[in-house]
Specification:
alpha/beta, 9 helices, Rossmann fold, two-stranded antiparallel ribbon
Amino acid sequence: MRIGIIGAGGMGGAIARRAALAGATVLLADRSEERARQAAERAVPGAPGTVRAVSVSAALRPRLIVLALGWQDGLDLVESRGPALADRTLVDVSVPTGPDAVAGGVRRLADTAPAARWVKAFATADACALFSGVVDRQPVDVFVASDDDQAKVTVIELVDRSGLRALDAGGLDNARGLEEMARVGQQLRERLLINGGWAFRFLPGW
């Protein structure tokens, strides 16, 4: 599997790590070539897959692309590259804040590039938890929402192969709920002065 990741910050580097552990070939792009190179080096130790720092154009070629960007940066990218994204599976990990939190999040991205297959995932855990893969010795849960079943299954399989636990979170309308969960998690981390990673975990009573 080939995966493009746009953004080599904390989230982009963590997702590159999980994809490499899943055995994928990862093309990682960032405005800073040096940051992309360093993130690629951190992502590969002990992993069967590979991570290579590339240009944004190269990272947009795979069928599966992760937008590890802030919401506005993601929107700007989608607006400028819309035609090139047709039939690609695009995974949005952003957590809009302020007026953007009400404006529509991933739904607005999807309206901007309606020919793409949109997925919301990875938002309900921070970069530290995703990179390590565990919180309190438990695998991190990744909630995956999409209206496109094929795209959703592709992301779920990637997450499961990476050592995390993927959970089908329903359609893209539920992305708003995942973003709200993420905002609560971020606030709790600040209020509780958490130094390590945090993640939401689903604990059903069977």
